[in-house]
């Protein structure tokens, strides 16, 4: 089991290296989080670099599958934001939910969350990173979290809006009613003429 | 000739076996009463045995690193990985100059850069618990936190002005593990600096414990008398991963791979 896990992280690591090379070529802005060379293993089983340029803005948040309260609320908040957008705006927005608990949140466990929470939109991605890269991306995003000895996590519930180049446009608490300013930023980032 | 090759091979193997550890001390595992609340019903946490560098990483060592890893040179690092003051005390991207002695601890280092350095050596940054456990020792005992002398010494350092040149590493006596400079020289990064969530941070709406955090919420410091350690946490929790300061350096740790004694 340990060995198999290791090889999973090694694969993710390899993709990260390749992504790192691509990263340098693409010349992201100096304040772009795309410089943080980590890769994501998605619930669909694909391994993709965190850095990407498909012209979409992204909302990124971190959660864990067995989280009892705050994380379901975060998903609700994300849904409310989505619901407030036009079809056109939604097409220009990706939603990325990344696990704080990569040891337990396997692609299958994340698929289970997606099924339970009726997340079927292709624009939404659930994924995990290697344990070291989870800490790395969490730190880069300014998300504070710690694992407790009983397996639970203390973590800040934060939504972070990135432009297609990976720069942070806005941040918001992830629970309850979405912050109106954050929604304005999402609309602006996904509006026609942006880019 | 084959003999010579053999010798080289043996020397290499010895180096491989000992090299990674030669500059580190082993700190035994065990249950640990941290200044941080455990977040659970337990009063202590378990810390696995680990190895810690005996001294902070020096300017000379970091210069060698940026020579071989040019993407971490000043002027090349993207802002998101190290702020504009990164390695600011060096004369140039590949030159220490008069203000940064080779034996002084390297400072003005971001968390990303510190981590990349340790990774390049097959090591990692220590966790907060590991750092705290190592730093609780003095020359005589493993946990000297209760002694007035220990606290005075740490607080005495905090009250010194920070604009004086740094001493060289290992100028002070080592603690009982053989580790130098955990207090009195520089502040140090830990790998999980963003796990140190102090109560009062970024409260947004309503009950911060319920709304902001999933779990038991922001930390309140357990041992209110232990300002010496609490100040470390306050500093670390105020940093971003790309932050640098003139008094903030780092050292590396490693898992303890030896069979436990």
Structure in a nutshell:
The complex is a heterodimer of chains A (about 200) and B (about 260). With about 200 residues, chain A is of the alpha+beta class. Chain A is about 40% helix and about 25% strand.
What portion of residues of chain A belong to β-strands?
15-25%
CATH architecture of chain A: 3-Layer(aba) Sandwich
What composes the largest sheet of chain A?
A: 7 strands, mixed
Q: What strand line-up does the widest sheet of chain A have?
A: 2-1-5-4-3-8-9
**Rg calculated over all Cα atoms of chain A:** 16 Å
Average of per-residue pLDDT values of chain A: 86
Instruction: Tell how many strands the DSSP assignment of chain A holds.
Output: 9
Please trace the helix and strand order of chain B, writing H or E for each element: HEEEEHHHHEHEHEE
Characteristic terms for this protein:
heterodimer, A: 195 residues, alpha+beta, Glutaredoxin, 9 strands, globular, B: 261 residues, paralog of FGE (formylglycine-generating enzyme), two-stranded antiparallel ribbon, 9% strand
List strands and helices in order, with pairings.
The complex is a heterodimer of chains A (195) and B (261).
Chain A: H1 2-26, E1 39-42, E2 47-49, E3 57-63, H2 70-83, H3 87-91, E4 93-99, H4 107-116, E5 124-128, H5 131-141, E6 145-147, E7 153-156, E8 158-162, E9 168-173, H6 180-190
Parallel strand pairs in A: 3-4, 4-5
Antiparallel strand pairs in A: 1-2, 1-5, 3-8, 6-7, 8-9
Chain B: H1 2-19, E1 24-27, E2 30-32, E3 45-47, E4 50-53, H2 59-68, H3 111-120, H4 128-135, H5 148-158, E5 187-188, H6 208-211, E6 213-214, H7 227-237, E7 248-249, E8 253-255
Parallel strand pairs in B: 5-7
Antiparallel strand pairs in B: 1-4, 2-3, 4-8
